[in-house]
Write a structure and sequence with these properties.
By secondary structure, the chain is mainly beta. Helices cover about 10% and strands about 35% of the residues.
Length: about 550
């Protein structure tokens, strides 16, 4: 039909049947052609879409460089794909095929899929996800790293393994962007990562979450590093006050929710003094049972990290942020450094407990721990620097006992909360800034001791000097808002008045943990100064000089 015919068929008065019939036939023809064309297009689209799905499931891409890789890549995809030869074009569909082919220095690359756990990585063979976080290794005995080579595992999730998520003996192991979660137990263990006799263990941006046992157990391992490589800001708030108990960041390095403890380092291989066995940097350690970090004869440096909300676990009554435990071999020097950018807070027992002879240097924010901020025994040495702040801890802010030695210069100890001593003193609440007990000694300089519930400094049967006086030096310090300033063996001590400043509490001041102090048991002394040091009325001052009554209950045994 030409244009003229079209116009004729549509002009008024044209024969209706003729125009309508020809028009219908023409429209039908056009519709038929369009439908046919559309079906061809849709078929092509469906074919392309199907091809894309197949490629997504069964294709593997080459990952970025792998630390320690010196050999070839061997590729694996899920079992739903056809078996190949391990090349990137035709990957294996079974991990076992790749492991049988792999040599030391090779890297097995896993495509996005879920794989069965319970396989062994041969010596020096690496295991990486082609795309981080898209590979789940589930169930079985997890991943066992064999031999003494250098191994990298990267980008995989190990889920619901039995007894151990990742286990390595000998050599060096590097975990990058790995998640190990919900490891269960068949009657023992149940730990996320278990390392024995390694030269080096490095965890980078790795998460150990909700495992039944420990998050990490390392025995006789020379170096352990738990780090987040991206610089993260200080966990303190903009006002710089102490008592801020959560970091303002959420680092990828997280060790949380593990039943028996976060990190346990036991009897590491000897390393020189000044070179800590353990480095924890920019890591969030939270909600673990028993302890956040437990050190059995290991030296450690903790920086820019939060160790918080440790709770009592099934292993025993302890619940400490950082725990230094006995069992040292001869000749080792144990030292722990915790820097000013770290927070150790809201732990169910102590912030830091020293149950073995060790040295501690701390500038951290140690706040709101339920038994005390720092407890040191066993002739330990404690150095608290001017960056440190201990606010809102219960019972005592810093305590040294059993011959331990405290050097505190410029730190703030504030807002210690009262707690009843029970059988040790009926109706007596203890809430002291600093406690020096049982043969311990202390040097306290330029301290801010504010709004502690009972005494700013409580001394009970300390080490004595040659002249018989307490070996406790307190100079240049401000004591305000407590019921007592300095108490020695049950009585206020006037001899410290000349070298320190006693002030009434400022009604606008806080207890150092971000809250107004309470008016009970001397928490805030209602604007009154501490009791006069000249008042020699014998104050009944029962004290708690042990962190627990039974030493066996104090120390976990793994």
């Amino acid at each position: 039909m030409n244009r003229r015919e079209t116009r004729e068929s549509l002009r008024p008065g044209a024969p209706a049947e003729h125009g309508t019939s020809r028009g219908k036939r023409r429209v039908a023809s056009i519709v038929t052609q369009c439908v046919a064309g559309l079906l061809i297009v849709l078929a092509g689209c469906a074919s392309a879409e199907m091809s894309a799905k197949v490629d997504t499931v069964c294709a593997v891409r080459t990952p970025t460089a792998v630390v320690g890789k010196t050999g070839k890549f061997i590729y694996v995809v899920g079992e739903d794909c056809a078996a190949g030869d391990g090349s990137v074009q035709r990957p294996f569909n079974q991990i076992s095929d790749a492991l049988a082919l792999a040599k030391s220095g090779d890297a097995v690359v896993l495509g996005p899929a879920q794989y069965d756990g319970g396989f062994v990585l041969p010596e020096g063979v690496h295991l990486v996800a082609a795309l981080n976080g898209t590979v789940v290794i589930r169930g079985g005995a997890g991943v066992v790293v064999d031999g003494k080579g250098v191994t990298t595992i990267r980008g995989v999730v190990v889920d619901a393994a039995v007894d151990a998520g990742i286990e390595a003996t000998g050599g060096s192991l590097r975990l990058e962007k790995v998640v190990v979660r919900k490891t269960t137990s068949s009657g023992k263990l149940g730990h996320g990562v278990v390392a024995s006799e390694l030269a080096r263990l490095t965890l980078i941006s790795t998460q150990l979450l909700d495992n039944k046992g420990l998050g990490l157990l390392a025995r006789k391992t020379s170096k352990v590093q738990i780090i987040e490589p991206i610089y993260l800001p200080s966990p303190r708030n903009a006002a710089g006050k102490f008592g801020i108990i959560e970091p303002i960041y959420q680092p990828q390095s997280q060790i949380s929710g593990n039943g028996l403890g976060g990190v346990a380092i036991i009897e590491p291989i000897y390393s020189p003094v000044g070179s800590p066995n353990v480095l924890v940097d920019s890591t969030h350690i939270a909600n673990n049972g028993g302890f956040g970090v437990g050190l059995w004869g290991a030296s450690a440096r903790i920086s820019n990290s939060a160790i918080v909300h440790t709770k009592v676990g099934p292993g025993g009554p302890w619940a400490d942020g950082v725990m230094l435990v006995g069992g040292l071999s001869g000749g080792k020097s144990v030292g722990v450094q915790i820097d000013a950018r770290s927070v150790i807070a809201n732990n169910r027992r102590t912030g830091v407990s020293m149950l073995t002879r060790a040295s501690l240097q701390v500038g951290a924010d140690i706040s709101r721990n339920r038994l005390c901020g720092i407890w040191a025994g066993a002739a330990s040495l404690v150095t608290v620097t001017g960056d440190a702040g201990l606010g809102g801890n219960t019972l005592v802010g810093v305590a040294v006992a059993e011959g331990a030695d405290l050097f505190l210069d410029g730190a703030t100890v504030s807002g210690t909360v009262a707690q009843s001593l029970g059988s040790r003193g009926a109706n007596t609440d203890a809430g002291d800034g600093i406690g020096v007990f049982d043969g311990a000694r202390a040097t306290i300089r330029n301290a801010q001791l504010k709004n502690n519930a009972r005494a700013a400094v409580l001394v009970h049967q300390p080490k004595k000097k040659a002249d018989g006086s307490p070996d406790v030096e307190i100079t240049g310090s401000l004591m305000t808002g407590s019921k007592y300033a300095v108490v020695v063996n049950g009585s206020p001590a006037p001899s410290y008045a000349a070298s320190n400043q006693y002030q009434a509490a400022d009604d606008t001041d806080t207890n150092g943990s971000g809250e107004q102090g309470s008016g009970s048991s001397g928490g805030r002394n209602a604007g009154n100064p501490p009791e006069s040091p000249e008042d020699k009325t014998n104050a009944s001052m029962p004290v708690k000089t042990k962190i627990c009554e039974d030493g066996g209950e104090c120390k976990p045994d793994f």
